[in-house]
Amino acid sequence: MKRNHTMLFIGAALIALLMGSCDTLFTNQFETLGLGQVSHQMIQDAVAGGTDAIIAESGLEEGGISPSFLAAATATPETANQVKAVLEATFTDPDATTEEKQAAEVLLIEIELEMNGGNDLIDNIVGAIGGIDFSSFNMGNPSDLANLLSSLFPPKGVRALPAGWTVDQVAAVLDGIAASQDRFADLVTFMGDSGYSVPGIDAGRLAQVGTIAYILSQVGFITPTYTSIGDALANLINDVTDSLDPEHFPFELYIQVPTTLIDDMKADLALQELFTAAGLDLVALLNTFGA
Known about the structure:
By secondary structure, this protein is an all-alpha fold. It has helices at 3-19, 29-32, 40-49, 51-58, 67-73, 77-89, 98-116, 118-129, 142-152, 167-179, 181-188, 203-218, 229-239, 261-267, 269-277, 282-287; strands at 220-221, 255-256. It has one domain (3-287). It contains 16 helices and two strands. A two-stranded antiparallel ribbon has the order 1-2. The longest helix is centred in the middle third of the chain and has 19 residues, at 98-116. It starts with a helix and ends with a helix.
């Protein structure tokens, strides 16, 4: 197994380890508290009321982001753009607090993932990786690596992708997740030594998604065959079948994983901060893989 392929598998293992540290970001907190569902009119009123009104409507301060808020906030591109414009204005508002900026960035990340279908795909990726027993996983064992590959890229009939999705749709989602890397880098600038100051922010979930975004943003793709990392990976996922030996699948025809990926992850201060906020040591975790 080539070392650069192993780098990608280590990243997958890292995401799996994070699963044990985070809860679901989207909670039923509104239902638990007996609060009503967020409607389109409520979103419009919140937009008119500014950042604080949007944050309050999201449920973030109540313990988690309400699914109905995301549904209402992304009901139409126009509505989503209105909400995003208010939240983005927070970053240049001299009167905005650190808490408001943290909440605004988190909401922007989740709104954009909701708009491009990223949450569905992330759940599928995380679910597939979650089927691997990493307690006895040996990165140097070809059999273990083959099992990991089979989970990440299963046979066409049971691939871990939303049913009915096309390669182009999957590519667009993956590109959207990769693009969110900039949002995570910005989010870290609003975090202090104590991490997040908004109680409803799920640090584990953000570290998990931030890791996926980071890896996607760093992996290269083969041109001119493919036009983006999403395009390359979507075709790779589509082409891996149970008739192929996953251990020897020609990944190099689709993607190029930097040989320095793990060292780059260790040195990335923003990624380290995401892990620290989740109560984890990124460098120590990566060192457990001998990387």
